[in-house]
Amino acid sequence: MLPAVAGAQNLPKNIRIIVPYPAGGAGDVLARVLAQSVSEKTGSTIIVEDRPGAGSIVGTEFAARATPDGTTLLLVENPYVLSAVLHPSVHYHPVDSFEPLCFVADTPAVLAVGGKSDIKNLDDFLKAAKAKAGAVTYGSTGPASIVHIAGELLRRDAKVDLTYVPYAGSPPAMNAALSGHITAVIANYSDLRAQIDAGGLRAIAVPANKRTPLLPDVPSLAELGFKDIEASVWFGFVAPKGTPKNVTDELIKQFTAAMDLPDVKEKVKSQGLVTSLSCGAPFGAFLADQHKKYIQFVREFDIKGE
């Protein structure tokens, strides 16, 4: 381990990052990559502790109860906000219960059809939906996921009748599209990447306002005429409310430095993620905006939590 650097004395000797998801996912890997990098630079011992359950609620509530002294951090993704909207009785508020540290990466969602499908692009997809109401189906993790919401926004804005089929996760939704049981799947690029690369799936659109560098030849929904349908899965870190400012400032400094390292960037890219850094108040404003949008979408589409 490298000697601790100047300024790192503001960090506790021992830090744990709570990941409210099962081990092995993109967020878990991201947390471990950053934990190792910051630990090596500062001399602090940083461990990752997976506490999955209830759509991230179990781990998030655990972190919210932790002593706000910098020894406990939380990895957050979209469900951190969405779960609180769907389940108002949870014992945390996504804006008020934590200090925002850094937004560090995201991965785009992708609308894809089977590689052997006659549907070659979004225009074909929408024409098929208009030709026979309800015949065109799309599947995703859900219900009540960001990709489900993206499908509902496309259905609304394109004025087509799409049939939604919920699945317990991206793999079964992907397999249903591969086998032709559903017309299309909307899922994270990181989950579909292997089948897209192999030709098993054909990506026809990215629910975003601009193209992603991960799929430069696939148009965004915005350029196809459907603006403000964003379904990227984002990743960030927060600390319990009341964590001292000198500690959060040092954490932000160390996360920023780590995300700029070439080996960290490469490891992040290998998970199908795009590095994107926003820390402190701007990240807090992003979380507040996400909270506002999810409340609106859940009400508009009458989405219920399970």
TrEMBL record:
<comment type="similarity">
    <text>Belongs to the UPF0065 (bug) family.</text>
</comment>
<dbReference type="InterPro" id="IPR005064">
    <property type="entry name" value="BUG"/>
</dbReference>
<protein>
    <submittedName>
        <fullName>Tripartite tricarboxylate transporter substrate binding protein</fullName>
    </submittedName>
</protein>
<dbReference type="Pfam" id="PF03401">
    <property type="entry name" value="TctC"/>
</dbReference>
<dbReference type="InterPro" id="IPR042100">
    <property type="entry name" value="Bug_dom1"/>
</dbReference>
